[in-house]
Amino acid sequence: MILSATNAATVTDSSSTKANASTDPAAAQDRFLKLLVAQLNNQDPMNPLDNAQMTSQIAQINTVTGIQQLNQTMQSMASQFNSLQVMQGTALVGRNVLTEGSSLAVADKTGKGGFELGSAATNVKIEVTTAGGQVVDTIDLGAKAAGRHTFDWDASQYTGSTEGLQFRVTAVNGSTKLDSTALNLAKVTAAGAEDGQLVLSLSNGKTINYSQIKALV
């Protein structure tokens, strides 16, 4: 009779600890050794288990045990890493961050947003719009260098609702229109972990991955 490592690793008892025992490397190895001893005691004297077969079986169970131990170690490391990420994320709570998006954050009658230019512009214009796209104000920022910028909008003269206000960026170099990326400004309100990634909850109701942050403001 040949005892395979697969059979040894899946032998379980009928107690309530069956699931834990089947994944415990030490328990799997103990079961294997007991089965091996039982096999040696009951082997056919005319056809005994040879050394090569025994060595092969021991090598297989050691491989299975090693893989199980490695999996447990990696799971423990992943759990510790997630906890460390969340601890680091809590340091961002209360900070303002820029992420891709065109929502305008308004507080104390001042709207704030940002944008990113791939190349220098001779003129940059910001249009503040309602959620439906109606322009309510325009800001001329003049020439801007390539890179990331922020802007403020004086909302003291605006009498409509500030909920859902958006903005769009128009950047040109002479007569050539340039690519630009609108950036939301929002405050981090909470930090957590999801699928091994640090996630942050923002004051605008969005949830983002840490990698989506463009800058701290």
Description:
- The chain is an alpha+beta fold.
- The chain folds into two domains: 5-88, no CATH class; 98-185, Sandwich (Immunoglobulin-like).
- 32% of the residues lie in helices and 37% in strands.
- The chain has four helices and twelve strands, in the order H-H-H-H-E-E-E-E-E-E-E-E-E-E-E-E.
- Strands 1, 2, 3, 6, 9, 10, 11 and 12 form an eight-stranded antiparallel β-sheet that branches. A four-stranded antiparallel β-sheet has the order 5-4-7-8, with no helix packed on it.
- Strand 4 (121-129) and strand 5 form a beta hairpin.
- Helix 3 packs antiparallel against helix 4.
- The longest helix is centred in the N-terminal third of the chain and has 40 residues, at 51-90.
- The radius of gyration is 32 Å and the shape is elongated.
- The model is unreliable at 1-17 (pLDDT under 50).
- InterPro entries: FlgD (IPR005648), FlgD/Vpr_Ig-like (IPR025965), FLgD_Tudor (IPR025963).
- Residues 1-23 have a biased composition (Polar residues).
- This is Basal-body rod modification protein FlgD.
- It comes from Acidovorax facilis.
- Residues 85-214 form the FlgD Tudor-like domain.
